């Protein structure tokens, strides 16, 4: 669970590529693009920037005994009802201006992954989706400062759940995040009952979320636990919609 300096360096590089992909996805969607338009553009941007910035590093993913993964720089974009629990495949359907749009970026450098997720919309969110956004962001803002050495995973989950309940929402099973490394979902798992204590060198996807049948809102950032607290590797406040 605790990464060494070389591993952390790879995760930093992957996080940087993920940010470039996210910026591209945002621009495409905000200019009228579809979910698939976003995916294609974001993956192309990450591939191009990798070739310029980190040509000596590998973005090949792990496959099976018959095949490999040429590029593990991935983008999945879903909007409106497509953000529901099952997260279906992206489509070329038009995205409504007032629909929440979720972009999920996974990037890998030398086998080490980073995750970056943002929910945004062309026009301000309204109704229940807007209230869910406020609840999710409140949980994010209150719990993020608690990510530091000595924090217990189940306590962080409980704190996020309590904040969302105050705003009238539940987080379902209470999933708050997970470790990343050679796999995209590693220990520690920030779920109820997990008593793992955070320590310097842990790389986490911190992702408070609310998913409903008709919409979903979440923000996932790569967070590195350090000696004094944490460092956010992927944060870009430009993706926060105006409510």
Brief synopsis:
This protein is α+β, with helices and mostly antiparallel strands and 243 residues long. Helix content is 31%, strand content 21%.
Topology (elements, then pairings):
Elements: H1 5-30, H2 35-53, E1 74-79, E2 101-109, E3 112-120, H3 127-143, H4 153-166, E4 177-179, E5 186-190, E6 203-206, E7 209-212, E8 215-218, E9 221-225, E10 230-232
Antiparallel strand pairs: 1-2, 2-3, 4-5, 4-6, 6-9, 7-8, 9-10
What does this structure look like?
It is built from four helices and ten strands; from the N terminus they run ααβββααβββββββ. It is an alpha+beta fold and 243 residues long. The protein has a single domain (5-239), classed as Creatine Amidinohydrolase. The chain starts with a helix and ends in an 11-residue tail after the last strand. The relative contact order is 0.18. The mean pLDDT is 91.
State the distance separating the first and last CA atoms. 38 Å
Q: Percent helix among the residues?
A: 25-40%
* Total domain units: 1
Strand and helix order: HHEEEHHEEEEEEE
CATH superfamily: Creatinase/methionine aminopeptidase superfamily
The level 1 CATH classification is Alpha Beta
Q: Count every beta strand, where a strand is a DSSP E run of 2 or more residues.
A: 10
- Largest beta sheet: strand ordering: 5-4-6-9-10
Predict the CATH topology.
Answer: Creatine Amidinohydrolase
Quickly count the helices: 4
Q: State the shape.
A: globular
The CATH architecture name reads Alpha-Beta Complex
Radius of gyration: 17 Å
Indicate the low-confidence ranges by residue numbers: none
Overall average pLDDT: 91
């Amino acid at each position: 669970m605790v990464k060494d300096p070389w591993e952390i360096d790879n995760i930093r590089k992957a996080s940087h590529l993920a940010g470039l992909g996210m910026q591209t996805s945002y621009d495409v969607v905000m200019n009228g693009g579809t979910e698939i338009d976003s995916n294609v553009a974001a993956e192309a941007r990450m591939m191009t920037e990798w070739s310029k910035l980190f040509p000596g590093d590998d973005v090949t993913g792990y496959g099976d005994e018959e095949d490999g993964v040429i590029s593990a720089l991935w983008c999945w974009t879903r909007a409106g009802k497509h953000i529901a629990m099952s997260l279906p495949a992206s489509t070329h359907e038009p995205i409504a201006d007032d629909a929440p749009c979720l972009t999920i970026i996974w990037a890998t450098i030398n086998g080490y992954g980073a995750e970056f997720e943002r929910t945004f919309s062309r026009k301000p969110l309204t109704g229940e989706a807007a209230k869910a956004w406020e609840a999710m962001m409140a949980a994010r803002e209150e719990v993020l400062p608690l990510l530091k050495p000595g924090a217990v995973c189940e306590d962080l989950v409980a704190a996020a759940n309590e904040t969302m309940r105050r705003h009238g929402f539940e987080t379902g099973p209470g999933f708050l995040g997970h470790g990343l490394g050679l796999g995209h979902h590693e220990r520690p798992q920030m779920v109820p009952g997990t008593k793992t204590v955070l320590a310097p060198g842990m790389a986490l996807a911190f992702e408070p979320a609310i998913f409903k049948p008709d919409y979903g809102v979440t923000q996932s950032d790569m967070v590195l636990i350090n000696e004094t607290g944490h460092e956010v590797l992927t944060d870009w406040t430009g993706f926060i919609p105006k409510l």
